[in-house]
Amino acid sequence: MAFALESPAFSDGDRIPRKFIRDGENVSPPLVWKDAPEDTRSFMLVVEDPDAPSGTFRHWAVYDINPDRDRLPEGTTAGAKTESLGHGVNDFGNPHYDGPQPPKGHGVHHYHFRLAALDAETLHLDEKADIDTILKKAEPHIIAETELVGTYEAS
């Protein structure tokens, strides 16, 4: 089986429910993955909108996710007491999830939830690291990636 990412809230290519939109409840959707490589030592998740008017806009990054995990529940903001999840500073300037918020009249935007399996237990990043810094630090450690794409259009 191939490394795969899913959400009980929406299927690949489907519209992201309003609950997970920045102008809605702005909570992160539940995510579930399977068949990660056996040598995975941590995971990193990044959510990006390549359809933004100014170029790719990054909405969320979570890193140093325990390799025993196979999900992030809805509204994930921190790890369990035995786990310290790192959260990158997104393009809104916030160290947490900020959902889709495309400009009205700009058409359908595609939100890429990219999960990477890493060969490093931790990325050793400052808590104020932005998502670009996280991606650069993680890149040499990526052993597998999977993606889930949701869409949203402001009305």
TrEMBL record:
Record region (Disordered): 71-101
Cleavable signal peptide: none
InterPro entries in UniProt: PEBP, PEBP-like_sf, YbhB_YbcL/LppC-like
Annotated Pfam families: PBP
Record-given protein name: Phosphatidylethanolamine-binding protein
Organism: Paramesorhizobium deserti
